């Protein structure tokens, strides 16, 4: 059974002070609540694709009904699961992350407690396919694992994600290759 990301946009309107221009601006914050996974197997099974990638660029933009989505351009290093059509020659893919902050029509719109993936950094990302927008989406913070030198940094707050904290990245990647089996594709 597929577990869906539960999205609750709790919008709080307030006033933010624009220090540069001195103009008061309205602040609209969105809070995302996620279904807590019971195991890593559940995270894996619910993901339509799993990739190891380096972020090339990310730039937040507002989409329908004021929701902030950040298109993130990835350099795919390895695909562990999923039938993704990335640019084969360049091994690049754009995914969308519900994160970031933008200003639109005098209103600052921000997704609370969500970092934007950073250019130059490597991540393992669990992705979902959105059939309505026909886009790959990052599956919340529990679907983000940052590879930092000799340690893994899960972005999720669930016990499942936290259990991976400080795990060695090579151990994690080896496990994912094993899970992916013959469907694993590596950039040469």
Give a short summary of the structure.
The protein is mainly beta and 188 residues long.
Order of helices and strands: EEHEEEEEEEEEEHHE
Shape: globular
Rg, alpha carbons: 17 Å
| Helix fraction bin | 10-25%
List its salient traits.
188 residues; nine-stranded antiparallel β-sheet; 13 strands; four-stranded mixed β-sheet; disordered N terminus; 12% helix; mainly beta
Could you explain the architecture of this structure?
The chain is mostly beta strands and 188 residues long. The protein is 12% helix and 41% strand. The strands form two sheets. Strands 3, 4, 5, 6, 9, 10, 11, 12 and 13 form a nine-stranded antiparallel β-sheet that branches. A hairpin with a 5-residue loop joins strand 4 (61-62) and strand 5. The radius of gyration is 17 Å and the shape is globular.
Secondary structure: elements and pairs:
Layout: E1 12-17, E2 24-30, H1 40-46, E3 49-58, E4 61-62, E5 68-81, E6 92-97, E7 101-104, E8 107-111, E9 122-130, E10 135-138, E11 144-148, E12 151-154, H2 159-162, H3 169-180, E13 185-186
Parallel strand pairs: 2-8
Antiparallel strand pairs: 1-2, 3-5, 3-9, 4-5, 5-6, 5-13, 7-8, 9-10, 9-11, 11-12
């Amino acid at each position: 059974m597929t577990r869906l990301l539960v999205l609750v946009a709790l919008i709080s309107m307030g006033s933010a002070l624009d220090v540069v221009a001195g103009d008061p601006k309205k602040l609209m914050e969105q809070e995302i609540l996620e279904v807590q996974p019971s195991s890593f197997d559940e995270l894996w099974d619910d993901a339509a694709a799993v990739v190891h990638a380096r972020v090339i660029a990310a730039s937040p933009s507002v989409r329908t009904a004021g929701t902030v989505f950040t298109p993130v351009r990835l350099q795919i290093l390895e695909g562990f699961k999923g039938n993704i059509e990335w640019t084969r020659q360049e091994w690049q893919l754009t995914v969308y992350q519900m994160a970031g902050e933008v200003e639109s029509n005098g209103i600052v719109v921000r997704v609370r407690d969500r970092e934007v993936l950073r250019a130059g950094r490597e991540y393992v990302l669990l992705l979902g396919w959105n059939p309505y927008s026909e886009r790959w989406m990052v599956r919340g913070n529990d679907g983000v694992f940052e590879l930092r030198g000799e340690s893994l940094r899960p972005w999720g707050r669930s016990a499942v994600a936290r259990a991976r904290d400080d795990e060695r990245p090579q151990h994690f990647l080896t496990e994912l290759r094993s899970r992916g089996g013959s469907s694993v594709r590596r950039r040469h």
